[in-house]
């Protein structure tokens, strides 16, 4: 191990790993298009888009140019009492894309923070109306981030609520939907949710969920009718609806936003990850004017959140460039082609004894195994096959950059076939 790698191992935390027994890491030297170049010279086709984010690939000329030209003007300036063109252009473009009547944008640092902001908005909205509503209703198997508020609405088992017992806010959980996307709708799916509304609707500030794809909680892809039911129950019980589109937003599921599969609009939408094309950390919480006014007319008279790096101009400028690329619309065809290939090449794996299920939607492909995979071993197999795929638990899944070419994607699906067949 070279000394940099030894230093990394001894001193730097990586996601969800240990300082005493860290998992092996691969040093990436550069990335371009859909390729990651390792320090040892090996080149890997990226199947992960750096966790849903790098939808246009790496080292993109237009995204590079946006940051470089912004850098000459200013890297950052506080957003309190100041505004700037990068934020204004980004928010104009964003509001053009999100379904109406979403029209007020709060920019923050990361997906988790966008969720914290959404939860705080919902709490302050009800406070503003003079009503105490202190609980959230959410779904088992959900994932919304690692900060405390976000964690309190994640699946209690997956996010290990037990580690933080006594410190986490207590919320209500309904069963996760079982009806699969593209298959028959089973009305019983909403029973648990209806019961939760009946029992807790009066104290519930908002429902929060990931539309259509429950990501880090299990990569489950569910029926749009469930979302429509959630919307109508929220209307019936006068509860706000928060759609966490941090992972699903910006085309990943084949629609610009996953809510569009159900034709519904939430009261608050959380966005992140692909917002900047995966270049920088930036998130947005977009609400209706009704929510924004409810907050602003309350006793606090303002929304109590304001991060130091709010609306960072570099991040806004690259996000604006990324949305402009999406607006050209090529992603629709790209995602459709990815879906077709993933479906063709991954579906046959269903028949292997080690495989429990295969699911594909848009540019997302999931192979669920019966048993958790040994991560370091499987990771090394993928790297040796020339692809970057990072499994978790029982899930081997990919969500490649939209620009991936057919032969590159076939390399990814081939590697999955080889690895899964060997397990
Ligand atoms: N919500 C969802 C649906 C996510 O998938 C994630 C990240 N995986 C988050 C929120 C948190 O985002 P971040 O990691 O940027 O804080």
Which key features would you list for this structure?
Aspartate Aminotransferase, domain 1; 16 strands; single chain; globular; alpha/beta; about 15% strand; 2 domains; 4-stranded mixed sheet; 7-stranded mixed sheet; Aspartate Aminotransferase, domain 2; binds 4'-deoxy-4'-aminopyridoxal-5'-phosphate; about 425 residues
Please, could you describe this protein's structure?
- There is one protein chain.
- The strands form four sheets. The protein has a seven-stranded mixed sheet with strand order 4-12-11-10-7-5-6, with helices on both faces.
- It has helices at 3-11, 49-52, 61-73, 85-97, 111-128, 148-151, 191-200, 224-236, 289-296, 313-327, 330-346, 375-384, 406-422; strands at residues 28-32, 35-38, 43-46, 102-108, 135-139, 172-174, 204-209, 213-214, 220-221, 240-244, 268-271, 283-288, 355-361, 364-369, 387-388, 395-398.
- Helix 3 runs antiparallel to helix 10 (313-327).
- It is of the alpha/beta class and 423 residues long.
- 48% of the residues are buried.
- Helix content is 36%, strand content 17%.
- The mean pLDDT is 97.
- The chain has two domains: 3-59 and 329-422, Aspartate Aminotransferase, domain 1, CATH 3.90.1150.10; 73-327, Aspartate Aminotransferase, domain 2.
- Strand 1 and strand 2 (35-38) form a beta hairpin.
- Bound molecules: 4'-deoxy-4'-aminopyridoxal-5'-phosphate (PMP).
- 4'-deoxy-4'-aminopyridoxal-5'-phosphate binds at residues 110-112, 115, 143-145, 210, 215-216, 244, 246-247, 272.
